[in-house]
Design a protein that fits this description.
α13 packs parallel to α15. The chain starts with a strand and ends with a strand. The protein folds into three domains: 2-268, 3-Layer(aba) Sandwich (Rossmann fold), CATH 3.40.50; 297-373, Tyrosyl-Transfer RNA Synthetase, CATH 1.10.240; 386-466, Structural Genomics Hypothetical 15.5 Kd Protein In mrcA-pckA Intergenic Region, Chain A, CATH 3.10.290.10. The chain has 20 helices and 13 strands. β7, α11 (240-254) and β8 form a beta-alpha-beta unit. It has a six-stranded mixed β-sheet, sandwiched between helices. Strands 9-13-12-10-11 form a five-stranded mixed β-sheet. It has a two-stranded antiparallel ribbon with strand order 1-2. The radius of gyration is 26 Å and the shape is elongated. The protein has helices spanning 48-55, 65-70, 93-104, 135-149, 168-171, 176-182, 189-193, 196-202, 208-211, 213-228, 240-254, 297-305, 309-319, 324-336, 342-356, 358-372, 380-389, 397-401, 404-410, 417-425, and strands at residues 2-8, 11-17, 58-61, 76-81, 108-113, 163-166, 230-236, 264-268, 391-395, 429-431, 434-435, 451-456, 460-466.
Protein backbone atom coordinates (compact mmCIF):
# COMPACT_ATOMS: atom_id res chain seq x y z
CA UNK A 1 0.00 0.00 0.00
CA UNK A 2 1.01 3.54 -0.72
CA UNK A 3 -0.26 6.72 0.89
CA UNK A 4 -1.39 10.07 -0.39
CA UNK A 5 -1.26 13.33 1.54
CA UNK A 6 -3.70 16.13 0.84
CA UNK A 7 -3.46 19.67 2.21
CA UNK A 8 -6.68 21.19 3.49
CA UNK A 9 -6.42 24.65 4.98
CA UNK A 10 -3.68 24.30 7.56
CA UNK A 11 -4.27 20.60 8.09
CA UNK A 12 -3.40 17.46 6.20
CA UNK A 13 -4.68 13.91 6.34
CA UNK A 14 -3.20 10.70 5.03
CA UNK A 15 -5.29 8.02 3.34
CA UNK A 16 -4.16 4.61 2.14
CA UNK A 17 -4.78 3.83 -1.53
CA UNK A 18 -5.49 0.14 -2.18
CA UNK A 19 -3.95 -1.10 -5.42
CA UNK A 20 -5.92 -4.34 -5.75
CA UNK A 21 -7.77 -4.72 -9.05
CA UNK A 22 -10.99 -5.51 -7.17
CA UNK A 23 -10.66 -2.57 -4.82
CA UNK A 24 -11.13 1.11 -5.52
CA UNK A 25 -8.09 3.06 -6.55
CA UNK A 26 -9.16 6.12 -4.56
CA UNK A 27 -10.49 6.65 -1.10
CA UNK A 28 -12.04 9.56 0.71
CA UNK A 29 -10.03 12.17 2.51
CA UNK A 30 -10.67 12.54 6.21
CA UNK A 31 -12.24 15.93 6.85
CA UNK A 32 -10.69 18.20 9.45
CA UNK A 33 -12.60 19.22 12.54
CA UNK A 34 -14.55 22.52 12.30
CA UNK A 35 -12.01 24.22 14.59
CA UNK A 36 -9.25 23.59 12.07
CA UNK A 37 -11.09 25.13 9.13
CA UNK A 38 -9.34 28.24 7.84
CA UNK A 39 -10.60 31.51 9.32
CA UNK A 40 -10.60 33.10 5.86
CA UNK A 41 -11.83 31.05 2.91
CA UNK A 42 -9.78 31.67 -0.26
CA UNK A 43 -11.50 33.22 -3.26
CA UNK A 44 -12.36 31.25 -6.37
CA UNK A 45 -11.96 27.52 -6.85
CA UNK A 46 -9.17 27.17 -4.26
CA UNK A 47 -11.74 27.95 -1.57
CA UNK A 48 -14.52 25.66 -2.84
CA UNK A 49 -13.90 22.70 -0.53
CA UNK A 50 -13.45 24.93 2.51
CA UNK A 51 -16.72 26.75 1.82
CA UNK A 52 -18.67 23.55 1.21
CA UNK A 53 -17.21 22.13 4.40
CA UNK A 54 -18.15 25.23 6.43
CA UNK A 55 -21.65 25.21 5.02
CA UNK A 56 -22.10 21.53 5.90
CA UNK A 57 -22.32 20.16 2.37
CA UNK A 58 -19.05 18.26 2.15
CA UNK A 59 -18.97 14.58 3.08
CA UNK A 60 -15.77 13.37 1.43
CA UNK A 61 -13.45 13.99 -1.49
CA UNK A 62 -10.76 12.08 -3.34
CA UNK A 63 -7.04 12.73 -2.88
CA UNK A 64 -5.81 15.24 -5.39
CA UNK A 65 -9.00 17.30 -5.65
CA UNK A 66 -7.87 20.02 -3.27
CA UNK A 67 -4.55 20.34 -5.11
CA UNK A 68 -6.37 20.49 -8.46
CA UNK A 69 -8.70 23.24 -7.24
CA UNK A 70 -5.78 25.12 -5.69
CA UNK A 71 -4.34 25.70 -9.16
CA UNK A 72 -7.25 28.03 -9.86
CA UNK A 73 -7.65 26.63 -13.36
CA UNK A 74 -11.29 26.33 -14.48
CA UNK A 75 -12.87 22.95 -13.84
CA UNK A 76 -16.10 21.37 -15.03
CA UNK A 77 -18.09 19.18 -12.65
CA UNK A 78 -21.27 17.21 -13.09
CA UNK A 79 -24.05 15.86 -10.95
CA UNK A 80 -26.68 13.42 -12.13
CA UNK A 81 -30.42 13.96 -11.65
CA UNK A 82 -33.04 11.26 -11.87
CA UNK A 83 -35.73 12.15 -14.46
CA UNK A 84 -38.27 9.61 -13.21
CA UNK A 85 -40.58 12.50 -12.26
CA UNK A 86 -41.29 16.01 -13.58
CA UNK A 87 -40.02 17.83 -10.51
CA UNK A 88 -37.10 18.02 -8.15
CA UNK A 89 -37.83 18.09 -4.42
CA UNK A 90 -36.08 19.91 -1.60
CA UNK A 91 -33.77 16.95 -0.97
CA UNK A 92 -32.24 17.65 -4.39
CA UNK A 93 -31.20 21.10 -3.23
CA UNK A 94 -28.03 19.71 -1.66
CA UNK A 95 -26.38 18.79 -5.01
CA UNK A 96 -27.98 21.80 -6.70
CA UNK A 97 -26.33 24.14 -4.22
CA UNK A 98 -23.09 22.22 -4.65
CA UNK A 99 -23.16 23.08 -8.36
CA UNK A 100 -24.25 26.64 -7.57
CA UNK A 101 -21.22 27.25 -5.32
CA UNK A 102 -18.96 25.68 -7.93
CA UNK A 103 -20.24 28.11 -10.56
CA UNK A 104 -20.04 31.13 -8.24
CA UNK A 105 -16.35 30.34 -7.78
CA UNK A 106 -15.57 30.02 -11.48
CA UNK A 107 -16.32 26.36 -12.22
CA UNK A 108 -18.64 25.06 -14.90
CA UNK A 109 -21.63 23.01 -13.70
CA UNK A 110 -22.91 20.19 -15.87
CA UNK A 111 -26.35 18.85 -14.99
CA UNK A 112 -26.63 15.32 -16.33
CA UNK A 113 -30.21 14.15 -16.57
CA UNK A 114 -30.35 10.38 -16.84
CA UNK A 115 -32.65 9.82 -19.77
CA UNK A 116 -31.00 6.43 -20.31
CA UNK A 117 -30.29 5.39 -16.73
CA UNK A 118 -33.73 6.70 -15.74
CA UNK A 119 -35.17 3.94 -17.89
CA UNK A 120 -33.39 1.41 -15.65
CA UNK A 121 -33.14 2.83 -12.14
CA UNK A 122 -30.41 3.20 -9.56
CA UNK A 123 -30.38 0.74 -6.63
CA UNK A 124 -28.84 3.36 -4.32
CA UNK A 125 -31.27 4.39 -1.60
CA UNK A 126 -34.17 2.34 -2.94
CA UNK A 127 -35.81 -0.82 -1.73
CA UNK A 128 -37.54 -1.89 -4.93
CA UNK A 129 -37.06 -1.90 -8.69
CA UNK A 130 -38.05 1.37 -10.32
CA UNK A 131 -40.59 1.53 -13.10
CA UNK A 132 -39.40 1.95 -16.68
CA UNK A 133 -40.36 5.22 -18.36
CA UNK A 134 -41.21 5.75 -22.00
CA UNK A 135 -39.31 8.32 -24.07
CA UNK A 136 -42.16 10.85 -24.29
CA UNK A 137 -42.51 10.94 -20.50
CA UNK A 138 -38.77 11.29 -20.10
CA UNK A 139 -38.65 14.18 -22.59
CA UNK A 140 -41.37 16.05 -20.70
CA UNK A 141 -39.60 15.44 -17.39
CA UNK A 142 -36.29 16.70 -18.78
CA UNK A 143 -37.85 19.98 -19.91
CA UNK A 144 -39.44 20.49 -16.50
CA UNK A 145 -36.21 19.79 -14.61
CA UNK A 146 -34.31 22.22 -16.85
CA UNK A 147 -36.73 25.02 -15.94
CA UNK A 148 -36.24 24.33 -12.23
CA UNK A 149 -32.45 24.20 -12.46
CA UNK A 150 -32.43 27.55 -14.25
CA UNK A 151 -33.54 29.09 -10.95
CA UNK A 152 -30.15 28.19 -9.49
CA UNK A 153 -27.65 27.86 -12.33
CA UNK A 154 -26.71 30.32 -15.05
CA UNK A 155 -27.11 28.58 -18.41
CA UNK A 156 -26.13 31.68 -20.41
CA UNK A 157 -23.44 31.34 -23.04
CA UNK A 158 -19.83 31.40 -22.01
CA UNK A 159 -17.12 29.07 -20.81
CA UNK A 160 -18.57 29.05 -17.31
CA UNK A 161 -22.21 28.68 -18.34
CA UNK A 162 -24.08 25.70 -16.98
CA UNK A 163 -24.91 22.87 -19.38
CA UNK A 164 -27.61 20.23 -19.28
CA UNK A 165 -26.91 16.92 -20.99
CA UNK A 166 -28.97 13.76 -21.42
CA UNK A 167 -27.10 10.46 -21.25
CA UNK A 168 -29.62 8.88 -23.59
CA UNK A 169 -27.85 10.82 -26.34
CA UNK A 170 -24.76 8.62 -26.06
CA UNK A 171 -25.78 5.50 -24.12
CA UNK A 172 -28.73 5.00 -26.45
CA UNK A 173 -26.33 4.56 -29.35
CA UNK A 174 -24.08 1.93 -27.74
CA UNK A 175 -24.63 -1.73 -28.65
CA UNK A 176 -24.59 -4.36 -25.92
CA UNK A 177 -21.49 -6.03 -27.32
CA UNK A 178 -19.59 -2.74 -27.53
CA UNK A 179 -20.60 -1.86 -23.99
CA UNK A 180 -19.50 -5.22 -22.57
CA UNK A 181 -16.20 -5.06 -24.45
CA UNK A 182 -15.44 -1.43 -23.69
CA UNK A 183 -16.80 -1.01 -20.15
CA UNK A 184 -17.84 -4.35 -18.70
CA UNK A 185 -14.41 -5.96 -19.06
CA UNK A 186 -12.88 -3.27 -16.85
CA UNK A 187 -14.75 -4.44 -13.72
CA UNK A 188 -14.84 -7.71 -11.82
CA UNK A 189 -17.92 -9.17 -10.16
CA UNK A 190 -16.33 -9.01 -6.67
CA UNK A 191 -15.65 -5.29 -7.20
CA UNK A 192 -19.28 -4.65 -8.08
CA UNK A 193 -20.72 -6.85 -5.33
CA UNK A 194 -18.68 -5.00 -2.72
CA UNK A 195 -20.54 -1.74 -3.36
CA UNK A 196 -22.92 -0.75 -0.55
CA UNK A 197 -25.69 0.12 -3.00
CA UNK A 198 -25.63 -3.47 -4.29
CA UNK A 199 -25.21 -5.14 -0.90
CA UNK A 200 -28.29 -3.38 0.42
CA UNK A 201 -30.47 -4.87 -2.28
CA UNK A 202 -29.14 -8.41 -2.70
CA UNK A 203 -31.36 -10.04 -0.08
CA UNK A 204 -34.52 -8.50 -1.51
CA UNK A 205 -33.70 -9.16 -5.15
CA UNK A 206 -31.77 -7.05 -7.61
CA UNK A 207 -32.24 -7.25 -11.35
CA UNK A 208 -29.29 -7.40 -13.73
CA UNK A 209 -30.49 -4.06 -15.14
CA UNK A 210 -30.04 -2.27 -11.84
CA UNK A 211 -26.88 -4.23 -11.05
CA UNK A 212 -25.37 -2.73 -14.19
CA UNK A 213 -26.27 0.82 -13.17
CA UNK A 214 -22.82 1.60 -11.77
CA UNK A 215 -21.24 0.64 -15.11
CA UNK A 216 -23.57 3.00 -16.97
CA UNK A 217 -22.78 5.81 -14.55
CA UNK A 218 -19.07 5.08 -14.97
CA UNK A 219 -19.52 5.28 -18.73
CA UNK A 220 -21.24 8.64 -18.29
CA UNK A 221 -18.30 10.05 -16.37
CA UNK A 222 -15.83 8.85 -18.97
CA UNK A 223 -17.93 10.22 -21.84
CA UNK A 224 -18.13 13.66 -20.22
CA UNK A 225 -14.41 13.52 -19.43
CA UNK A 226 -13.61 12.76 -23.07
CA UNK A 227 -16.08 15.10 -24.79
CA UNK A 228 -16.38 18.05 -22.41
CA UNK A 229 -13.30 17.84 -20.23
CA UNK A 230 -15.36 17.15 -17.10
CA UNK A 231 -12.85 16.24 -14.39
CA UNK A 232 -15.09 16.12 -11.31
CA UNK A 233 -18.23 14.21 -10.39
CA UNK A 234 -20.39 15.40 -7.50
CA UNK A 235 -22.98 13.21 -5.83
CA UNK A 236 -24.65 12.26 -2.58
CA UNK A 237 -22.80 10.14 -0.05
CA UNK A 238 -24.87 7.12 -1.11
CA UNK A 239 -23.46 7.50 -4.64
CA UNK A 240 -19.83 7.10 -3.62
CA UNK A 241 -19.53 3.56 -4.95
CA UNK A 242 -20.90 4.51 -8.35
CA UNK A 243 -18.72 7.62 -8.52
CA UNK A 244 -15.52 5.75 -7.74
CA UNK A 245 -16.42 3.19 -10.41
CA UNK A 246 -16.27 6.07 -12.88
CA UNK A 247 -12.86 7.08 -11.60
CA UNK A 248 -11.71 3.49 -12.00
CA UNK A 249 -12.90 3.36 -15.60
CA UNK A 250 -11.25 6.66 -16.49
CA UNK A 251 -7.98 5.66 -14.88
CA UNK A 252 -7.90 2.33 -16.72
CA UNK A 253 -8.88 3.61 -20.13
CA UNK A 254 -7.46 7.15 -20.14
CA UNK A 255 -4.26 6.71 -18.17
CA UNK A 256 -3.08 8.26 -14.96
CA UNK A 257 -1.60 6.65 -11.93
CA UNK A 258 -0.70 7.32 -8.34
CA UNK A 259 -0.25 11.03 -7.79
CA UNK A 260 -1.53 11.78 -11.30
CA UNK A 261 -5.26 11.04 -11.18
CA UNK A 262 -7.01 12.32 -14.32
CA UNK A 263 -10.40 12.77 -12.61
CA UNK A 264 -11.76 13.51 -9.16
CA UNK A 265 -14.86 13.01 -7.02
CA UNK A 266 -16.70 14.76 -4.22
CA UNK A 267 -19.57 13.40 -2.12
CA UNK A 268 -22.08 15.64 -0.38
CA UNK A 269 -23.83 14.97 2.90
CA UNK A 270 -27.20 13.27 2.81
CA UNK A 271 -29.44 15.65 4.68
CA UNK A 272 -31.56 14.14 7.46
CA UNK A 273 -34.18 15.82 9.59
CA UNK A 274 -34.05 15.64 13.42
CA UNK A 275 -35.97 12.33 13.37
CA UNK A 276 -33.29 10.71 11.19
CA UNK A 277 -35.50 10.56 8.07
CA UNK A 278 -34.37 12.02 4.76
CA UNK A 279 -34.95 15.75 4.71
CA UNK A 280 -37.63 17.01 2.38
CA UNK A 281 -40.91 15.60 3.64
CA UNK A 282 -43.73 17.16 5.62
CA UNK A 283 -44.89 15.83 8.99
CA UNK A 284 -47.54 13.88 7.08
CA UNK A 285 -44.85 12.14 5.04
CA UNK A 286 -45.52 13.92 1.74
CA UNK A 287 -42.61 15.21 -0.33
CA UNK A 288 -41.98 18.95 -0.64
CA UNK A 289 -41.59 19.59 -4.37
CA UNK A 290 -40.17 22.53 -6.30
CA UNK A 291 -43.13 22.35 -8.70
CA UNK A 292 -45.83 24.83 -7.53
CA UNK A 293 -48.52 22.49 -8.86
CA UNK A 294 -47.35 19.79 -6.44
CA UNK A 295 -46.36 21.97 -3.48
CA UNK A 296 -47.83 25.46 -3.42
CA UNK A 297 -45.47 28.40 -2.81
CA UNK A 298 -47.24 28.96 0.53
CA UNK A 299 -46.76 25.34 1.63
CA UNK A 300 -43.17 25.51 0.40
CA UNK A 301 -42.54 28.69 2.40
CA UNK A 302 -44.21 27.22 5.46
CA UNK A 303 -42.02 24.10 5.28
CA UNK A 304 -38.94 26.26 5.84
CA UNK A 305 -40.60 28.54 8.36
CA UNK A 306 -41.50 25.52 10.51
CA UNK A 307 -37.88 24.40 10.94
CA UNK A 308 -36.80 24.09 14.56
CA UNK A 309 -34.31 26.39 16.25
CA UNK A 310 -31.91 23.46 16.52
CA UNK A 311 -31.68 22.95 12.76
CA UNK A 312 -32.21 26.40 11.27
CA UNK A 313 -28.56 27.47 11.58
CA UNK A 314 -27.42 24.49 9.55
CA UNK A 315 -30.16 25.05 6.94
CA UNK A 316 -29.31 28.74 6.48
CA UNK A 317 -25.72 27.76 5.70
CA UNK A 318 -26.82 24.96 3.37
CA UNK A 319 -29.59 26.62 1.38
CA UNK A 320 -28.66 30.27 1.05
CA UNK A 321 -25.61 32.04 -0.34
CA UNK A 322 -25.43 34.44 2.60
CA UNK A 323 -21.87 35.13 3.75
CA UNK A 324 -20.36 34.24 7.11
CA UNK A 325 -20.80 37.68 8.67
CA UNK A 326 -24.43 37.94 7.62
CA UNK A 327 -25.23 34.44 8.88
CA UNK A 328 -23.44 35.07 12.18
CA UNK A 329 -25.46 38.27 12.66
CA UNK A 330 -28.69 36.48 11.75
CA UNK A 331 -28.06 33.60 14.15
CA UNK A 332 -27.12 36.08 16.87
CA UNK A 333 -30.49 37.75 16.38
CA UNK A 334 -32.11 34.30 16.45
CA UNK A 335 -30.48 33.49 19.78
CA UNK A 336 -31.48 36.82 21.29
CA UNK A 337 -35.07 36.76 20.01
CA UNK A 338 -36.09 33.17 19.19
CA UNK A 339 -39.76 34.06 19.50
CA UNK A 340 -39.43 36.26 16.39
CA UNK A 341 -37.91 33.39 14.37
CA UNK A 342 -35.69 35.72 12.28
CA UNK A 343 -33.53 32.90 10.91
CA UNK A 344 -36.53 30.82 9.87
CA UNK A 345 -38.15 33.82 8.20
CA UNK A 346 -35.02 34.75 6.29
CA UNK A 347 -34.46 31.13 5.23
CA UNK A 348 -38.07 30.69 4.08
CA UNK A 349 -38.11 33.98 2.17
CA UNK A 350 -34.73 33.36 0.51
CA UNK A 351 -35.38 29.79 -0.67
CA UNK A 352 -38.95 30.49 -1.76
CA UNK A 353 -37.87 33.54 -3.78
CA UNK A 354 -35.16 31.51 -5.52
CA UNK A 355 -37.51 28.64 -6.40
CA UNK A 356 -40.78 30.49 -7.09
CA UNK A 357 -39.78 34.11 -7.63
CA UNK A 358 -39.82 37.21 -5.46
CA UNK A 359 -43.52 37.96 -5.94
CA UNK A 360 -44.58 34.45 -4.90
CA UNK A 361 -42.32 34.63 -1.84
CA UNK A 362 -43.80 37.96 -0.72
CA UNK A 363 -47.33 36.58 -1.17
CA UNK A 364 -46.47 33.41 0.74
CA UNK A 365 -45.06 35.45 3.61
CA UNK A 366 -48.16 37.65 3.64
CA UNK A 367 -50.48 34.65 3.73
CA UNK A 368 -48.41 32.96 6.43
CA UNK A 369 -48.56 36.02 8.64
CA UNK A 370 -52.30 36.29 8.12
CA UNK A 371 -52.86 32.63 8.91
CA UNK A 372 -50.79 32.38 12.05
CA UNK A 373 -50.71 35.87 13.53
CA UNK A 374 -53.89 35.21 15.49
CA UNK A 375 -55.58 38.18 13.82
CA UNK A 376 -58.89 37.80 11.91
CA UNK A 377 -58.52 36.96 8.21
CA UNK A 378 -60.87 38.95 6.00
CA UNK A 379 -59.05 39.25 2.66
CA UNK A 380 -60.70 36.93 0.08
CA UNK A 381 -57.44 36.71 -1.91
CA UNK A 382 -55.59 35.45 1.17
CA UNK A 383 -58.40 33.02 1.92
CA UNK A 384 -58.30 31.68 -1.62
CA UNK A 385 -54.58 30.99 -1.26
CA UNK A 386 -55.09 29.33 2.11
CA UNK A 387 -57.89 27.20 0.73
CA UNK A 388 -55.45 25.66 -1.75
CA UNK A 389 -52.56 25.47 0.71
CA UNK A 390 -54.10 24.20 3.94
CA UNK A 391 -56.96 21.91 4.85
CA UNK A 392 -59.58 23.33 2.50
CA UNK A 393 -63.16 22.06 2.20
CA UNK A 394 -66.40 23.01 0.50
CA UNK A 395 -69.76 23.66 2.15
CA UNK A 396 -73.31 24.27 1.03
CA UNK A 397 -76.11 26.30 2.59
CA UNK A 398 -77.74 23.20 4.07
CA UNK A 399 -74.52 22.50 6.01
CA UNK A 400 -74.98 25.78 7.88
CA UNK A 401 -78.64 25.32 8.78
CA UNK A 402 -78.13 22.76 11.56
CA UNK A 403 -75.91 24.92 13.73
CA UNK A 404 -72.25 24.86 14.70
CA UNK A 405 -72.08 21.26 15.97
CA UNK A 406 -73.66 19.77 12.86
CA UNK A 407 -71.46 21.95 10.63
CA UNK A 408 -68.27 21.00 12.49
CA UNK A 409 -68.93 17.31 11.91
CA UNK A 410 -70.32 17.63 8.38
CA UNK A 411 -67.27 19.65 7.28
CA UNK A 412 -64.94 16.91 8.47
CA UNK A 413 -63.38 19.09 11.15
CA UNK A 414 -64.35 16.49 13.78
CA UNK A 415 -64.98 12.79 13.43
CA UNK A 416 -67.90 12.67 15.87
CA UNK A 417 -70.42 14.80 17.76
CA UNK A 418 -68.77 13.93 21.07
CA UNK A 419 -65.34 15.11 19.89
CA UNK A 420 -66.83 18.36 18.60
CA UNK A 421 -68.76 18.99 21.88
CA UNK A 422 -65.66 18.36 23.96
CA UNK A 423 -63.57 20.82 21.94
CA UNK A 424 -66.32 23.44 22.05
CA UNK A 425 -66.69 23.11 25.83
CA UNK A 426 -62.96 23.70 26.20
CA UNK A 427 -63.09 26.84 24.03
CA UNK A 428 -61.02 25.24 21.29
CA UNK A 429 -63.23 25.99 18.25
CA UNK A 430 -63.68 29.26 16.41
CA UNK A 431 -65.39 30.02 13.11
CA UNK A 432 -64.53 33.29 11.39
CA UNK A 433 -62.63 34.12 14.60
CA UNK A 434 -65.79 33.86 16.74
CA UNK A 435 -65.35 31.40 19.59
CA UNK A 436 -68.05 28.72 19.49
CA UNK A 437 -68.94 27.09 22.81
CA UNK A 438 -72.59 26.11 22.37
CA UNK A 439 -73.40 23.14 20.08
CA UNK A 440 -76.55 24.81 18.72
CA UNK A 441 -74.90 28.19 18.11
CA UNK A 442 -75.43 29.53 14.57
CA UNK A 443 -72.61 29.40 12.08
CA UNK A 444 -71.30 32.97 11.44
CA UNK A 445 -72.03 34.42 7.99
CA UNK A 446 -69.41 33.53 5.37
CA UNK A 447 -66.80 36.21 4.66
CA UNK A 448 -67.60 37.96 1.35
CA UNK A 449 -70.49 35.48 1.12
CA UNK A 450 -68.04 32.66 0.32
CA UNK A 451 -65.47 31.83 3.03
CA UNK A 452 -65.41 30.28 6.48
CA UNK A 453 -62.25 30.19 8.61
CA UNK A 454 -62.25 27.32 11.09
CA UNK A 455 -59.61 27.15 13.82
CA UNK A 456 -59.18 24.24 16.21
CA UNK A 457 -56.84 25.12 19.05
CA UNK A 458 -53.79 27.20 18.17
CA UNK A 459 -52.32 25.13 15.35
CA UNK A 460 -55.09 23.69 13.19
CA UNK A 461 -56.51 25.94 10.49
CA UNK A 462 -59.13 25.06 7.89
CA UNK A 463 -60.67 27.24 5.19
CA UNK A 464 -64.10 26.46 3.81
CA UNK A 465 -65.42 27.71 0.48
CA UNK A 466 -69.05 27.84 -0.57
CA UNK A 467 -69.61 25.19 -3.26
CA UNK A 468 -69.84 26.68 -6.73
Amino acid sequence: MTACTIAWGNEASVSPIPTSRDGPTVVAVTRPSPESAPAAIPDGLPGLLAELDWRGHLHEATPGLAARLATGRPIAAYNGFDPSGPSLHVGHLVPVFGLLHLQRRGGRPVALVGGATGMIGDPSGTSAERNFLDRDTLAANLASLRRQLERFLDFSAGSGGAVMVNNLDWLGEVSMLDFLRDVGKQFTIPYMLAKDSVQGRLSGGLSYAEFSYMLLQAADFRHLYRTMGVELQIGGADQWGNITAGLELIRRSEGGGEGDEPAHAMALELLLDPSGAKFGKTAAGTMVWLDPERTSPFAFYQHWLDRSDDEVGRLVRLFTVLGRDEIDELLGDQEAHPERRPAQRRLAADVTARVHGEEAAVQAERVSQAAFSGQPIRDPAVLATLYDAVDGFEFQDRDLAGGALAFAVASGTFASNSEARRTMSQGGLSINDERIVEPDAPVPPPIAGEWLVVRVGKKRLRVGRRAR
